[in-house]
Amino acid sequence: MDSVREHPVCRAAETIRTCVDQMLLDTIDGHAAILVGVDPDVGSLVEAIRAAAMGGKRLRGQFCVWGARVAAEASGSTGSPSTPGVLNTATAIEMFHLAALIHDDFMDGSDTRRGVPTVHRSFTDRHVAEHLSGDAGTHGSAMAILAGDLCLTWSDELLGDAVADLDRATRSAVRSMWSTMRDEAFAGQTLDMLAQTRETVTRQRARTILRYKSAKYTISHPLRLGGALAGAPVPLLSQYDEIGVLAGEAFQLRDDVLGMFGDPAETGKPVIDDLREGKRTLLVALTQERASPAGRRLLTTSLGNPQVTVDDLLAVRELMVSTGALADTEDRIDDLTASAQEVIGRIEVDESTRARLRELVRQSVRRRS
């Protein structure tokens, strides 16, 4: 059937998402008992984290589980979400992602995420509404830092639980991949923040930022972590990395397009945010390269401008269309996705499993939110 809801791949994805959702909330609730036990006032922080955890597609967790499934099947095993440690690892990745979102929203000054106030914004608004002492913005920022830090520590705890009973070699391999994932994601975020301090960005720098800030930890690392848990051989792990870099870049490019042209009712955040925050994306880099002097001035004065208007946004959108930057970005998404699918076609698994991995990649780059 054509219905996404009835597609067997989506039913399988929903099962994984439900399992990861439950483990994510169980982890938060388990720590809540300790935190609130110190003082009931700490409950507001737990509630904010729990609210931030709601929703999301759990794509990273799904890629982790399917990384294990494909690896197990390729080695002749059955492979399933019951692969030792895989659900804990999938949840650890999603907890790490939650921490990144909370901190990223604070750094970018975003007011909404998934249609609800971000953590720093909710605490800032509460401070104002309750007429509390001190600066409301400073309070909201501090609480968001605490919330993100807690999620980071919990992600490490989940990963530790995942590998606790594994053999030494597997445990070492998974921990090494996990460490690399964290370091690369933070490096990418640092480059993103530095890029926002500069008027222009080259397409190469934009691609480096998107690869390490998002692409690798969205698909490549989750696939490899799942594969390592299932004993994937080096050639398969290399294929996972190839798939992840290709599809992960396409994923982030789609995110960049949605950040400028998406429907806020579906994305859960205003489309003007990326422009106001001064995101130096590949879409922006291509536009800067091709625009006239007047167009470049428009882009320069709009990027990172807290007073940017809807009219400015519409003008920048038109510039991205007229220079061909949007069309070329869409073409690159298509090319990257096709290349990732070609690599999937070379993995020696049955067609049903291959189709599920293909569909997961397709969902990642064809999403509308």
UniProtKB/TrEMBL annotation:
One Gene Ontology molecular-function label: prenyltransferase activity
One protein family per Pfam: polyprenyl_synt
Pathway field: Isoprenoid biosynthesis
Needed co-factor(s): Mg(2+)
GO biological process, one term: isoprenoid biosynthetic process
Record has Nucleus as a keyword: no
PROSITE patterns: POLYPRENYL_SYNTHASE_1 (PS00723)
Keywords, comma-separated and alphabetical: Magnesium, Metal-binding, Transferase
Cited InterPro entries: Isoprenoid_synthase_dom_sf, Polyprenyl_synt, Polyprenyl_synt_CS
Family that this chain belongs to: Belongs to the FPP/GGPP synthase family.
PANTHER family documented for this protein: GERANYLGERANYL PYROPHOSPHATE SYNTHASE, SHORT CHAIN ISOPRENYL DIPHOSPHATE SYNTHASE
Protein's recorded name: Polyprenyl synthetase family protein
Source organism of the structure: Gordonia oryzae
